[in-house]
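call fold target=Amino acid/amide ABC transporter ATP-binding protein 1, HAAT family
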Amino acid sequence: MIEVTDLHRHFGGFRAVDGATLRIEPGTITGLIGPNGAGKTTLFNVIAGVLKPTSGTVTMAGEDISGLPPHELFHKGLLRTFQIAHEFSSMTCRENLMVVPGDQSGEGLWNTWFGRKRIADEERALRAKADEVLEFLTITHLADQRAGQISGGQKKLLELGRTMMVEAKIVFLDEVGAGVNRTLLNTIADAILRLNQERNYTFVVIEHDMDFIGRISDHVICMAEGHVLAEGSLAEIKANEQVIEAYLGTGLKNKDQLAGASA
């Protein structure tokens, strides 16, 4: 589905992404790990159109999408969430979901005058869809609560819910577990797995929690210094000497520490 070939993103003399090459298969959940400064978030930002590549290509289903802006990628089904949730804090959780789909009739001045029935019909359909999403994520009780008042973990669930309001094909999740308690993290993992298994969502997930990565991921990619260092199952990644060196810098004698180390 996504192919990244010799991708570079430089900031002056700093090579945040330095020749990254990888492939994301459709219908999979890929974990993206690596030490701080490895280039993971910058890679996400380039793929998702937040940053333009210095060089290299990104293709989606065979189409070159290198450098396309986020709104165009959104309409192609490529969505990205952020480590810090970007909710509309003064709106309710239901309203946060309802504003996601683009090209709504109520956005046009002409329709506000002459297309009121169409707007009302769309709003009813969006409300029903939002309620379905809230139920799927087991946060129906938050429907009428302002998004700024819910917990950090609930905000991460709400961000995941936004991807369900449109026809998402691939979703890039940036540290979905950051600051989330274990109970909510399990709820998020359940939702990701269900979306993958029941609705064929493809996910790429940056995460430091190796237990979380091990639970949800089909495939794991480890980055270091802007490029792909290793890939395979989590067990293979944990046994890889280069990965251990990248995390710990002390080689195989500390190999067993990787199981509990954060990325």
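return ok
DSSP finds ten helices and ten strands in the chain. The beta strands are 2-11, 14-24, 29-33, 55-60, 63-64, 78-80, 170-174, 202-206, 219-224, 227-232.
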